[in-house]
Amino acid sequence: MEYKTLMCLICGWIYDEEQGLPQDGIPAGTKWEDVPLNWTCPECGARKDDFDMVPM
Prior knowledge:
It is a single chain. The chain is mostly beta strands. The chain has one domain: Rubrerythrin, domain 2 (Single Sheet). Helices cover about 0% and strands about 20% of the residues. Strands 2-1-3 form a 3-stranded antiparallel sheet, with no helix packed on it. The protein is globular. It starts with a strand and ends with a strand. Its cofactor is Fe(3+). It comes from Undibacterium danionis.
């Protein structure tokens, strides 16, 4: 399975689909499109719209 990595354009925080964010209720392997729309960056509170895919 191909996982993506996305970065917050405001603070630089990284979301890795393979790792998910279990402490926020997002299990490992959760695709970006399956992250809830009301989710916000844990570092700065930015919305999903403020993230962009980054090559790793």
